[in-house]
Amino acid sequence: MNVGVVNVTCYFRHLKQIFQKAGIEVTKENKQEIDKIIRNIVNVGYKNCPATWRKVKKRIAENEENFVAKLKEAWKKQSSTRQS
């Protein structure tokens, strides 16, 4: 079992609407990539799921629209890099 994937998904179930608003379809293949983007947005180190979730919740509470916009922008940028 890949422990990294388990860690990655610990807070994803809470973000279904956020992913929807950002136009991101979460798959088994892209979960780690999305997690990395989110951790960069909230400035949390790898495999620190509780800290990531705390910061994500705080950012969403403060300004959900801004968090969604940052996530969407970073995902588009990442997607264009993958396709190049």
Task: List its traits.
globular, disordered N terminus, 4 helices, 0% strand, 84 residues, mainly alpha
What does this structure look like?
The chain has a domain at 28-84. It contains four helices and no strands. It has helices spanning 3-8, 16-22, 31-42, 49-83. It starts with a helix and ends with a helix.
Strand count, sense and barrel status of the largest sheet are:
none
Please compute the radius of gyration using only Cα atoms: 12 Å
Ends: how far apart?
31 Å
Strands, count: 0
Shape: globular
Total of DSSP H or I helical runs spanning 4+ residues = 4
Percentage of residues in helical conformation = over 70%
Topology overview:
Elements: H1 3-8, H2 16-22, H3 31-42, H4 49-83
Helix pairs in contact: 2-4, 3-4
